[in-house]
Specification:
It contains seven helices and 13 strands. The chain is α/β, with parallel strands linked by helices. Strand 7 and strand 8 form a beta hairpin.
């Protein structure tokens, strides 16, 4: 598997990081995990082939994880893509996404390629080749659920692990506690989003995690000279903080 970091920034990171977006390639498979608000620019900067992406998976409906979807699909159309694509979104918000895209005039009747909107739920699914994806429900949106339900929205959020034989790539997406995903951080390659974790958790994971573990979704406070980075060093003695950067490519 080859993983390209398209966007490693938080919702409010600095100008060196795009919002959450990752490209996973294996055998004849090419998919995106998350499609943050500036994903099109991230894909262009990485030199990605917009015609090769077969699936886009959205882990939850926050703009920094899904807001780039209309622009990416529109760019594919303008470039006259012909191959179909599948877009997987949380099942409880599938109808919203269908309406949302239609309001950008994105629908199959006028598009250069066919796109299929599919419901995403916890569980496993097999893709082309040997890759299997497992989606794990997380509690990131639980704090909004009361108000969301009043507005007619049932929010869902997921972490994902990609399995290729004995090799595995884990992406937490947004989580509010490392306890939700602790069992997966020893995968062949693990990306855990740091923006909502307590500093105590960041410090504890940094101490025990190996070189296969990286933080992503980096707020400016966790950059090299950021306020949180200095606090991690001063309060917890954290000397090493593995973080990914846009444009990095990992092969496992």
């Amino acid at each position: 598997m080859r993983i390209t970091v398209l966007g490693s920034g938080s919702a409010f990171s600095d100008l060196t990081r795009f919002n959450s977006a990752y490209l996973l390639e294996a055998d004849n498979l090419c998919l995106m995990i998350d499609c943050g608000s500036d994903a099109l620019r991230a894909l262009q900067k990485a030199g990605a082939n917009l015609f090769s992406i077969q699936d886009i998976f959205v882990t939850h409906m926050h703009a920094d994880h899904c807001g780039g979807l209309p622009a990416v699909l529109t760019a594919m159309h303008v470039l006259e893509r012909r191959e179909p694509i599948r877009v997987h979104v949380p099942s409880t918000q599938l109808e919203f996404v269908k309406s949302w895209l239609a309001n950008f005039f994105i629908y199959n009747e006028r598009w250069s390629f066919r796109f299929e909107l599919l419901p995403l739920d916890a569980g496993r699914r097999s893709l082309a080749g040997k890759i299997e994806l497992a989606f794990i429900a997380t509690n990131h949106l639980e704090k909004y659920k009361g108000d969301a339900l009043k507005a007619g929205v049932n929010p869902m959020s997921f972490a994902v692990i990609a399995l290729d034989g004995k090799k595995s790539f884990f992406f937490s997406s947004d989580i509010d506690s490392i306890d939700e995903v602790d069992r997966y951080i020893d995968s062949s390659l693990s990306f855990v989003e740091a923006a909502h974790l307590r500093l105590e958790e960041v410090a504890a994971v940094s101490k025990k995690a190996g070189d296969n573990f990286f933080f992503t979704h980096i707020p400016k406070e966790l950059e090299t000279n950021g306020e949180w980075t200095k606090e991690l060093s001063g309060r917890f003695g954290t000397q090493k903080l593995n973080v990914v950067h846009d444009g990095q490519i990992f092969t496992i």
